[in-house]
Amino acid sequence: MTSAPSGLGALAAAPVPPPPPPVRPLRGALRALPTMLRVHFAEVVAWRAEMLVWVLAYTMPLIMLALWSAVAREAPVGRFGEREFRAYFLATLVFRLLVASWAVWEMNIEIREGNIAARLLRPIHPLLSYAAQQASAFPMRIVLAVPIVIASLLWIGADVVTRDPVQLLLLPLTLVGAWAVTFLVMVMIGSLAFRWESALGVFDLWLGLYFVFSGYLMPLELLPDWLQSIVRWLPFPYMLAFPVENALGLIDRGTTLRALGIQWSWAALLLWGALAAWRSGVRRYSAYGG
Amino acid sequence: MITVRSLAKHYRVHSRQAGVGAAVRSLFRRTYQTVKAVDGIDFSIETGERVGFLGPNGAGKTTTLKMLAGLLHPTEGEARVLGFVPAQRDPSYLRSIMLVAGQKQQLLWDLPPAETFELNRAIYGVPRDQYRETLDELIALLELQPLIGKPTRQLSLGERMKCELAAALLHRPQVLFLDEPTIGLDVTMQAALRAFIRRYNERHGATVLLTSHYMDDVAAICPRILVIDQGRLTYDGTLTALVRRLRPEKRVTLRLGEGILETALAALEVPVVSSCDGVVVLQVPEDRLRSVVAQALDKLPVVDLTVEEAPLEEVIADLFAARPKRAEAV
User: Which residues in chain A have Cβ-Cβ distances shorter than 8 Å to B115?
Assistant: First the structure.
């Protein structure tokens, strides 16, 4: 009983809307960025209690500090005495706090529950929307990190920080690089949720390797030389250990510059990978019944 | 404006029996089923039309809407909206459309709706003057003033839905996809939203494509309907024509002043749909309407008489009840 498409033209008298103007996606996104950061910052402020609890969850470096300090009390481990371990793990705590991301959990739940549609419908790339959301938490994280930094410097002494002005100048760049690598890895893994409905199993696997090879549980130079020489080519050290080693002067300026090159090469490669994984995931997205 | 040719979306879904044994077996051997959510549909919609998608649960309405909004890639066929291929998700296209789903939200949960409005203004690049003008209009039409400063999580479902609509319309989309926009709302709010959608369409010439389980939504908003069932388009035309085609008979309701005269009623020779408390409902073929009404007025103590089409819900229920089941591919 199918009839021919009628095309009633019920509103012939209504004004025909003009064709949409051409959009330059990048320019539009950059123009929107300040508002996106401001609104998402308001969101982070609304979550302040959750944020505090989240910070408390990052206490592993303090446990490692106690553990390795006890070991070093007997005798130094390599060039790490008690004081060096304190400096290392407090820097690890602060930098982990600054460069952390929660994109993989956000993506996983949004894809599973179909709420990803709101991002897909907006005329800016969803990855930029995630990035703005995560980056907007920086001011709040800095507020939380500053007291830890001040207390640490008073306890250990400011001379544990590198005196090299180039290394100090590069510090923000190493942190942004560490955040970029962390975020982009999360996006790549999070995009698997488009296919498998949950990517958290894969992320747990990644997290296991991250704990060992990022310098989170121990300084990388305590690994066997052969393993260290492999790990230094992997992304893990550039997510945490590298900014810490640079800030504490555990590596020289030349090594910092080389490592910075590797870190940003990883960031570029992961950006390509994250965009490809996202594109492929969206093509497969079924949102069946959602 | 919107053209759809042989559009299809098939899903491959894992299927298994309930129970622990089936769960363990599915670890080693999985069986899949191909669900044809949309199975080759064709239609076109002109600028400014308001079109309703009707169909039972799982018929393919929402999947079609999602394909048209660029959320899903079709398995086969093609769709064009405003000259764009939706699946390519061109930013210019996304600036021209909006999908509002009654069960999903874009409002930021922990912030007042005003923040989502501001975020959308920036993301859609709406000029400040136009934004202010549109927002003022939406605030007035939807009575949003007391709501936009409260955190979204503290708003009722109806209040949230009004704010969702406002957030969706700030950039004045030319095409509006509405998926169950009145679900869960009370009747007053449903009526208000229907009136608003009509007014938006009339004022801005926007094209509206709507799915709803509430027949009143469809009847109030959409002069044209598309009936989709088991992924296939089974009807495209006006609602009135569909009702006439399926139920050519009219419903004649008689309110009688005295006791019902069974013999006089039987003499009319038409089916009695119901008879209760002096109110008799008859089903009368259109060609006999005039004579039956004249006869009733003549032979029965009629106080009041109304002639109507069969209720829409009944017609649609009949339509879906009569359909043959289609086997899924495995």
Answer: 39, 42-43
Residue B99 touches partner A, C-beta closer than 8 Å: yes
B positions 276-315 inside 8 Å of A (CB): none
Predicted confidence band at B326 (pLDDT cuts at 50, 70, 90)? Answer: low
Name the pTM for this structure: 0.82
Q: What percent of chain A has pLDDT over 70?
A: 89
B69 close to A (CB below 8 A): yes
Structure tokens at A246: 């640079």
Residue B327 has pLDDT above 80, yes or no: no
Task: Quote the pLDDT of residue A85.
Answer: 94
The residue among B42, B50, B119 with the most chain A CBs within 10 A of its CB, best to mutate, is B119
pLDDT value, residue B318: 76
